[in-house]
Amino acid sequence: MLFNYKFAGNSTVTSTMHKTGLSFAPDTLRESAWFVGKLHKKLAFREAISALHDVVISDLRFKPKDKTAYKEWVAQNEALFLAEYMAGYDGKAADNRMEQIKAELTDVRAQKEKLLAPFFKARQKYFNYLYEKNREAWIVLDPVITIHPDELFFECFSQDESTYGKLGCNYNVFKQLDDYKCGTTNVDYSSALYEEFQKIRDYKETELKVDPSGFTVETTNEEQYKEVKIDLPDSWVRGFLQVSSAMTLPTIQFDLHPMDIYNICLLLRRFKEKRGPRSLRYILEPGHPVKVILEPWGKEIICARSIYTGPAKQEVRTWGRRRLLILERLIPVAKKFTVHLLGTGLPAFYIADLCDMNFTLGLSGWTTNDWSHAGNFDLLAPRLAVDDAIKHQVFVAMQKDWFGTSQQLANKLNIESAQVSGALSAYTQAGRVIYDLNKNVYRLRELSREPLPFEKLRFDNPREEMAAGILKAQEIKFTSQQLADGSMQLTGTVKGARKTFNSQLLIDADEKIKSAGCDCSFYIENKLYKGPCEHMLAVRQSFNKTRIAEGFK
Fold first, then answer.
1. DSSP for 86-129?
2. Locate the SWIM-type domain: which residues (predicted)?
3. N or C: which end of the chain has fewer CB within 10 A?
4. Rounded distance, CA 340 to CA 262, Å?
5. Are residues 297 and 347 in the same domain?
């Protein structure tokens, strides 16, 4: 998808002995939104905005070692190794010849390095320029900032599309609020800006500004604008929509003390796993401290300050735990961390309570299973078919109030709460509304200037779309069996128009498909080389739906 942005210059920081000014350049192509205020809680804001930067640059995808240089070295020295090995049969003459060739090679390599040095230097300079001046070549999209009557919040996505970050600041964070206008915009967020954030000090006045002047510059000053066109992969946008859908699902909720998060991060820093399962296992028992077990080491953390108050005993396992290191900077300034778990192998949300600020970290099921692939949490969210006229009424009310619960909107519009919830769910899945887990309200937030083609972005491939149709028709029956090694055996039948298909999935302890089979033509022709078939996806989605329901009971 092609996104067009037009910034009034670059985001800048002005720093003196007594004052620091943070000015974000907004996207002038969107409806005007601005904010001007002086920070009161400077250090907490510095740590929170820095943690948001850690989300933006996060990329934990597997990167194989680059052996190119080693292979080149072996190829270059292969003749030398062979000559040295065979040197014994031709004594002094061979040794002299080898020394002569070595001297010649040394001279040739020196000349080569001398000739190519300007090229290598220019190439490195070019990539440094791209990183500093054109971050779009390295990071997919600048953060989205939304200004509401009660708070402003930043949102961003990681490079590997598995981590979501949101920083919300209510207006008590500011001791002086000069001016603001509600709305959503993309802000220019350069790498240099992060470095300047580190200079925020408690004894300096710090002004935060989403510059309103960007919307009032006359067209004669067109050269002052910075135009950016970014061709975003559909997976990035799809991931953002799936995060919003996942946040509306029922969760298992409990609080952790900052020292509990510190203990988890400490163990992750001290140990590096070499085998699976690489999970974080939460053992929750009503009236008892939360217990956390880090596998495969079996390290146990008893969170004595954090008592679980849920209704039933349960055990939940999550993966991709090294992404929790993003929360390290927040530990000194956080009062508590509220954890929201959807279930075993499903996404998790960690909300840091920073008094007048909150930081939400959303993690997909595991790092390589990012938000956009085989998640489809919109399929699991309750969605009632709602008339377009009612949807319009709900959206107009949201535009007027900016945020609210479904019950508040139902009372105001005199519409059934279920219909309002259905309309809000539809707008959430379309990127126009977001659910705020911290305050349990829906908020107006349009992800893009133009409405997104939701039906195009909803699925990663045709098989996911077919699985959605199967799930909607509820023609699925399955059984699950927990095996001794921690893996899960799923066996299901999917009723088609002319035939009933039989699917089997073996999901290992790391929630990955270890083996699978189906009697459909797609699997017979391709096996798993092109991914699971629609019947396997439908069986697994149905199983995940029961997981969420059981965890919420």
1. HGGGGHHHHHHHHHHHHHHHHHHHHHHHHHHHHHHHHHHHHHHH
2. 503-544
3. C
4. 18
5. yes
**Shared-domain flag, residues 140 and 35:** yes
Which tokens in the block code for residue 215? Answer: 């919307």
pLDDT for res 370:
61
The CA distance from 148 to 400, in Å, is: 11
Q: Are both 142 and 208 inside the same structural domain?
A: yes
Q: How far apart are CA 13 and CA 15, in angstroms?
A: 6
Domain span at residue 430 reads 382-456
Phi and psi at residue 332, to the nearest 5°: -70, -25
Determine how β-strand 19-26 pairs with β-strand 205-210: parallel
Q: 304 is written with which tokens?
A: 């004595």
Helical spans, DSSP H, in 320-387: 377-380
CATH number of the domain encompassing residue 391:
1.10.10.10
Q: Which residues of 465-474 are buried (b: 16+ CB within 10 A; e: fewer)?
A: ebbbebbeee
Q: Which residues lie across from 301 on neighbouring strands?
A: 292
Q: What is the CATH number of the domain that holds 302?
A: 3.10.150.10
Q: pLDDT tens across 65-121, in order?
A: 777 787 888 788 877 777 666 655 666 777 788 888 888 888 888 888 888 888 778
Residue 52 is given by DSSP the state: H
Residue 352 lies inside a defined structural domain of this protein: yes
Report the range out of 297-306, 442-451, 464-473 with the highest average pLDDT. Answer: 297-306
| Residue 74 covered by a domain | no
- What is the end-to-end Cα distance of the chain in Å, rounded? 40
Give the DSSP H/E element, type plus range, for residue 130: helix 91-133
Among 430, 456, 482, the domain-final residue is 456
CA 548 vs CA 248, 380, 407, 423: distances in Å = 12, 9, 23, 22
Same domain, 403 and 486: no
Answer for the pair 139, 159: CB distance below 8 angstroms, yes or no.
yes
Q: Return phi, psi of residue 303, to 5°.
A: -90, 85
